TrEMBL record:
Species name: Trifolium medium
Protein name (record): Haloacid dehalogenase-like hydrolase superfamily protein
Gene3D superfamilies assigned: HAD superfamily/HAD-like
Taxonomy, superkingdom: Eukaryota
GO terms assigned for molecular function: hydrolase activity
Record flagged with keyword Transmembrane helix: no
Keywords: Hydrolase
Keyword Hydrolase: yes
SUPFAM superfamilies in UniProt: HAD-like
Length: 68
């Protein structure tokens, strides 16, 4: 992302990746020349726990159409 967005993302607690630069800037957790290096640089993005479940903290609205 851009330097401005990297810093904003870091302020709200996101992990950040600067793409297009090899040197990290303030707030960037990673700096990559190319997005294709992401899997090598951050392999934990591809790891998952089979037991993990998606949970929704509140009610989930579902739109349904009815023909009468």
């Amino acid at each position: 992302d851009s330097a401005r967005n990297i810093q904003a993302g870091k302020r709200v607690g996101l992990d950040t990746v600067l793409v297009g630069k090899s040197q990290r800037i303030k707030g960037a957790d990673y700096a990559l020349e190319n997005i294709h290096n992401l899997r090598e640089a951050v392999p934990e993005l591809w790891e998952f726990d089979i037991k993990s479940e998606v949970a929704y903290p509140g009610n989930l609205a579902v739109e349904t159409s009815v023909t009468a």
